[in-house]
Amino acid sequence: MNAIIVSDLHLGSRYFCYQEFERFLKSIPQDYELILNGDIIDNPKAQLAPPHQSILHLIKRFSFRQRVVWVQGNHDKGFVTNGFGKVNFKSVYSIGNRLLIIHGYDFDEIMPRNQGFVKAFRLMHNLRVKLGARPVHVAEYAKKWKLLYNVLRKNVMTNAVNCALENGFQTVVCGHTHYPEDRVYNGVRYINTGAWTEFPAFYLKVNGSTMSLKSIDTPLDTHS
Hints:
Helix content is 30%, strand content 22%. By secondary structure, the chain is of the alpha/beta class.
């Protein structure tokens, strides 16, 4: 089976690379399944700007041509899915017994237990931007706090790998951390597809029995 997996588009966010994603979406070959691994929407209660709304329409039209799976993330909660083409909405998805696809928020034991710190961090970040700092997504700013950010990444990875081991999967794919990586941990391959709020964005290409994490400046080559 062939598939393209992306995560964390955050439609509605000023940082979503919508032009790059539109070109990317139109380049996916018809024999590839598209898997959207969570946090596709930034805020389901907010009105989308026309360019971001057009991306949703493209995904809907895409689903009539080839299979689309939307694995819901924490930001997607509350998004109305009725009448959304032929998109398959899932809480978790798998390809055979070798690839488990889950957004990753449920593996995060750091942020849900420290909401006071998270809110204060966001306020500080927003204040920096208002004072003239370069506007970036809060996740990109958080990466400057390397020690804390690495704790979050490892927590998500460890719990994701444990889940894969418990359920007999060889590989687990997550998003959530906004940090693209591909590594082996405790004998399980852990892949994170990063986010489309920073450039370059990443995607996972599944071609038969091979999987490779690529940046969007790498052309889709269906022969490799």
